[in-house]
Request: fold
Amino acid sequence: MQPSYEACGVRRSTDYAKIRRRTLKLRQQHSRWGAGRLLLELDSLYPNHERPDPRTLQRWLRDEQLPPAPAGRPKEQRQDRAERPHQVWQVDAAEQKRLASGQMISWLRVADECSGAVLKTIAFFPKATSRVYRPARSRTI
Reply:
């Protein structure tokens, strides 16, 4: 008697081939997209379908001999960056930082966005006090 293998293996949905083709087409259009980004796109294209595992997408891409997407996020260039000195200043603050000596410090720094030059830094050394600030209680009338 011959064994019947029709009942063996994973049952694929009827849309399996369609989702696979769409995934490969998306990857060919967007070579920087990895499995995670492709899954987000598939979720929006096929919201009522079972989503494949990320490893399944990676296997599909490998089977088609598509190179893996580059690691990390692409570096974005800001379009609205200052083009000349003093056009835009950046203000940065740090609060309650401990120095190597153990002393606490806070500071405010102003820098020029175009050149990166530090224009001014003001350091604040908080006084050690035993008084604790408590906001006034509101009175009900």
Remarks:
- Residues 125 and 131 are 17 Å apart (CA to CA).
- The chain has a mean pLDDT of 83.
